[in-house]
Design a protein that fits this description.
86% helix, elongated, 129 residues, mainly alpha, 5 helices
């Protein structure tokens, strides 16, 4: 965060402007929120693969809702920001999570379909022959 703050000050001075402490701090917060949001998106697959989520899936619970809740909680804890940008980024993050979970769900359904086809073929091919 210090590096981002120094960068903001250097950019202001190099462009001939007077550094504004408030806008530099906002820049640092914005950078932090973006980094955390990217980290959250990248962690979705590992959360889905966690034992707790697999247990919810086996019990036919709402695994997507639980995954979403965990990712958003991690985002809120790590950003510790309550600014307008943080709220806007959270809304965008929620959309990204939903898209990613939808994609993961489709992949899982496709994989289950392939397993079912294989099972049906193995068990009913002798009858068909």
């Amino acid at each position: 965060m210090l590096i981002h703050l120094a960068k903001a000050y250097a950019e202001a001075v190099n462009s001939g402007k007077v550094p504004n402490i408030e806008s530099a701090w906002n820049y640092v917060c914005k950078e932090k929120v973006e980094v955390v949001a990217d980290k959250c998106i990248k962690s979705i697959q590992s959360v889905v693969n966690s034992e707790e989520i697999k247990k919810i899936m086996n019990e036919e619970g709402d695994w997507k809702k639980e995954t979403r809740k965990r990712i958003l909680h991690a985002f809120k804890v790590e950003t510790m920001a309550e600014g307008q940008f943080s709220m806007e980024r959270q809304l965008k993050l929620e959309e990204e999570i939903d898209q990613k979970l939808g994609f993961i769900e489709k992949e899982m359904m496709f994989g289950q379909g392939k397993k079912l086809q294989k099972w049906l073929h193995m068990n009913f091919q002798p009858i068909m022959d």
